[in-house]
Amino acid sequence: MAREHDRAPGEPSAEHPKPLRVEMWTFLAGVVFFLIVALIYGVWSSWEPVGTVALLLLTGLYGLSGAYLAILARRVDPRPEDNPVSDVEDHAGEIGVFSPHSWWPLVLGVAAALAFAGIAVGWWMFGLGLVVAAIGLAGQTFEFSRGPHAH
């Protein structure tokens, strides 16, 4: 048997099963479920076009996600979540980088409120919401490029 460091990425070993299996089978089971639901709905509603097509498209979306996870499982190394005998400590690590405080989500919320109100009130307010949204999006995107949290 080959040693652990001689494995190709995505190749299972005795210690790690294939990665992303639970996620892949969850989505592929959704394909079967929603296909059955779509067929039952189609027969029951005399093939009403909107609902039947929506359920068939939902089946396709689940299939796309399941196929993507199946392809991705061949290319990635096993995660601690894929090992049934792993400990909680194996899952520890950096999750992400979060700012300690930020005003930009508030700016984006105000922009969304202006844009949605602009649909009802007038297009000038919708445009104002888009301008504020562009400023807020740029601010949040480049928040760590300047100022006290720059890195």
List keywords for this structure.
151 residues; mainly alpha; 2 domains
Helical fraction: 55-70%
Instruction: Note the main sheet.
Output: none
Q: How are helices and strands ordered from N to C?
A: HHHH
Structural class: mainly alpha
Low-pLDDT segments, ≥5 res: none
Rg value = 24 Å
Measured distance between first and last alpha carbons: 45 Å
Total beta strands: 0
Number of domains: 2
Number of helices: 4
Mean pLDDT comes to: 86
Which band does the percent of strand residues land in? under 5%
The general outline is flat
Model description:
There is one protein chain. By secondary structure, the chain is mainly α. The chain has 2 domains: 76 residues; 46 residues. 58% of the residues lie in helices and 0% in strands. It contains 4 helices and no strands. α1 runs antiparallel to α2 and α3 packs antiparallel against α4.
In short:
With 151 residues, this protein is an all-alpha fold. Helices cover 58% and strands 0% of the residues. It has two domains: 9-84; 104-149.
List the helices and strands and how they pair.
Layout: H1 21-44, H2 49-75, H3 104-121, H4 123-141
Helix pairs in contact: 1-2, 3-4
